[in-house]
Specification:
By secondary structure, the protein is mainly alpha-helical. The protein is built from 7 helices and 4 strands.
C-alpha cells in the first residue's frame, strides 16, 4: 500500500522518524549521565530534548496522513497503526512532561528522568509496531515500484549488422526491440 505522504515517490514518515528517536534517546542518556555526575550534561540533554520534540511533531504529520490515507480501515493493520500512533503519541507526551521537570541549570528531576526513560521505552515499542506495519502489512510500501523500475531500466542487447570481428552489440529499449 503506497504511502499517501511521499516526496519524489518515497514515503516521508520513515525519512523523518530516525531524528526524534535518536535525539530523544540520546537526551535520556545525557540525563542519566547528568544524574550520575552532576556535570554539564543536563543542559545538553535539554537541547536534545527540545530538538527531539520538534522532530517528533514533524515526523507525526506524515504519519497521520498515512494513517488516514493509506492504512485500510477495519483490518489488523489498522489496529496496529492505531496502537503505533497511540504509543508514539504517549512517548512524546512523556518527553514533553519531562521537559517541564527541568531546572534553570538544565538538570532534570528524578521524575523527569523517569518520564524520559518511559518515553524512550515507548519509542522502542512504537518503533517495533511501525516495523511490523511496514514489513508484515506492507504499509507505505509501493508494491509495483520494482516492476516499474525494471521496465524502465530494461534493455536488450542485440547484434548490429556489419560489425567487426565478433560483432557489435547495441542496447535497444524493449519497445523498439519488439519492432525488429
Amino acid at each position: 500500500m503506497r504511502s499517501t505522504a511521499r516526496l519524489a515517490g518515497h514515503p516521508v514518515h520513515p525519512m523523518l522518524i530516525p531524528y526524534p528517536f535518536a535525539l530523544l534517546s540520546v537526551s535520556t542518556m545525557f540525563d542519566v549521565l547528568d544524574s550520575r555526575t552532576r556535570g554539564a550534561y543536563g543542559r545538553t540533554a535539554g537541547h536534545l530534548l527540545d530538538a527531539g520534540l520538534l522532530a517528533g511533531a514533524a515526523a507525526a504529520v506524515p504519519g497521520l496522513i498515512d494513517y488516514v490515507g493509506t492504512v485500510p480501515r477495519g483490518t489488523s493493520a489498522s489496529r496496529q497503526a492505531t496502537w503505533h500512533a497511540a504509543i508514539n503519541g504517549s512517548a512524546l507526551l512523556a518527553f514533553l512532561l519531562a521537559r517541564r521537570e527541568r531546572g534553570r541549570d538544565g538538570a532534570t528531576s528524578r521524575s523527569g528522568l523517569a518520564l524520559s526513560l518511559l518515553g524512550t521505552a515507548l519509542l522502542g515499542a512504537g518503533g517495533w509496531l511501525g516495523g511490523e506495519l511496514v514489513y508484515h502489512h506492507h504499509i507505505g510500501v509501493d508494491e509495483d515500484a520494482g516492476a516499474r523500475r525494471r521496465e524502465r531500466e530494461a534493455t536488450l542487447l542485440t547484434p548490429v549488422a556489419g560489425g567487426r570481428g565478433r560483432g557489435h552489440l547495441q542496447q535497444v529499449p524493449p519497445a523498439l526491440a519488439s519492432e525488429r
